[in-house]
Amino acid sequence: MSPALEEKPGFENIEAADSDQGVAATNNDSKAASAAKAAADDFGFSLAEQRRITRQVDRRLVLTVGAMYCVSLMDRTNLGAANIAGMAKDLELIGNRYSVISLVFFVTYVVFQPPSTVIVRKIGPRIHLAAITLLWGACMTGMGFVKRWDQMAGLRVLLGVLEAGFFPSCVYLLSTWYTRYEVGKRNSVFYLVGCVAAAFAGILAYGIMQMGGLSGLNGWRWIFIIEGILTMLLGIAGYWLVVDFPDAKRRNWSFLGTREREWICARVDADRGDVKPLPFSLAKYLRAGMDIKVWAYAMIFFNTTTITYALAYFLPIILTENLGFSVGASQCLVAPPYAFAGIVMYATGWLGDRYRVRGPIIVFNMLLCIIGLPIVGFHSSAAVRYFGVFLVTAGANSNVPAAMSYQANNIRGQWKRAFCSATFVSFGGIGGIAGSLVFRSQDAPAYHPGLYACIATTLLNMVIVGCLSLYFYRLNKQADRGERELECDADDTYEPGFRYTY
């Protein structure tokens, strides 16, 4: 065993664990693992050189899109901080107006996602991601100057249009660069950076609030203005930092040589046989929707994001109204649960890749939620309820990269991958609509109906994963006996040795 496996792998030595994971391969995927290793050996790179190349990709790809997702998550979820900082009073958010402002974002966010993974393939991630990030940053800045609640709702609709293409494009892009049992850790790091945003967004918002009165603007307005400017600057930087798909030849590849890029493509192609896309066909693209598994993955993500968005939008409010903390304390107390979630997220991502499992990771995360939600809702002590927030936040947020890896491991074909990424994230947006509605103002301060809804989605995730795991087990056994082949791509071709991960 490599000495690298004897130490806990951080971002710097992820590659060491990846290189040695063939030792832990199960019988189901040993052929694919051997083929990937043979493809890598054909290029003559030493193990140290392979780790160096993968580390370069990690730094340039994962950290760049992670930073951009950081501001994306912060921009779409800062309503809670702005609401308790004075927005509710200034915009007269009476009745269900706050919930309306929260959910209208997700209408356009869902509708405009399916075309995004086609567009990003056609024009490239560099232009696509940088442009929409710049534009939604401008939209965010404009929110700091609205005078009425309906103007804010209108800008939230526009924000949904602009952000719709970002997350599915990132999920798709990440899945094309790594083999199936490398992607779990990368998805975790990608989303972990977003969690850092969520952890410190409340503290940042509280600091920006202190600018209240400057230029005659209230503190909540400065939250939108400053965060919008930061987003625009990152969008401009993204034009030079974002990388293209590994098989593309149209963009600047200065950070990788031609042989290095070909090595990346060869090992991914040996792992699942779909590195290059076939010519686009709308019929073949939509045919992926006939696979029930695609919708099962999407439903898992819907159940997960219902909880994550409910937390993002209402956690500051719950901390204030339910647990009795002050506005300043509520803004700052959002950070520790998300920091804890980051630790759980990376640990479960590493374990999933190391032992080549996906379903048990999702179930474990849901167990954290099912334990934490009743504590948040029903314990008499505010301190204990706050501990419950840690469990729910960790379980729900850790499930986002876990679900991403689950679907990425069990599909083949570039256009099916594109379709699955779009539907997967679209259902996440529908979960955002549900998350915006489950905690209703008339249920304050206990919000029990919202807690019941989150418990229901948690249990449903466990049922779906259990059913899929049994289904995958049966199909894999049939494939092992030579009775069938698994996962054809859009051209009706199969990859020998491909097995589902459960």
Automatic annotation (TrEMBL):
Q: How does it sit in the membrane?
A: Multi-pass membrane protein
Q: Name one GO molecular function term.
A: transmembrane transporter activity
Question: Entry's InterPro entries?
Answer: MFS, MFS_dom, MFS_trans_sf
TM stretches of this protein? 99-120, 127-145, 157-177, 189-208, 220-242, 294-319, 325-349, 361-380, 386-406, 418-438, 450-473
Keyword Transferase carried by entry: no
Q: Which PROSITE patterns match?
A: MFS
CC annotations in GO:
membrane
Keywords, ordered alphabetically: Membrane, Transmembrane, Transmembrane helix, Transport
- State its location(s): Membrane
Q: Where is the Major facilitator superfamily (MFS) profile domain?
A: 61-478
* Protein name in the entry: Major facilitator superfamily (MFS) profile domain-containing protein
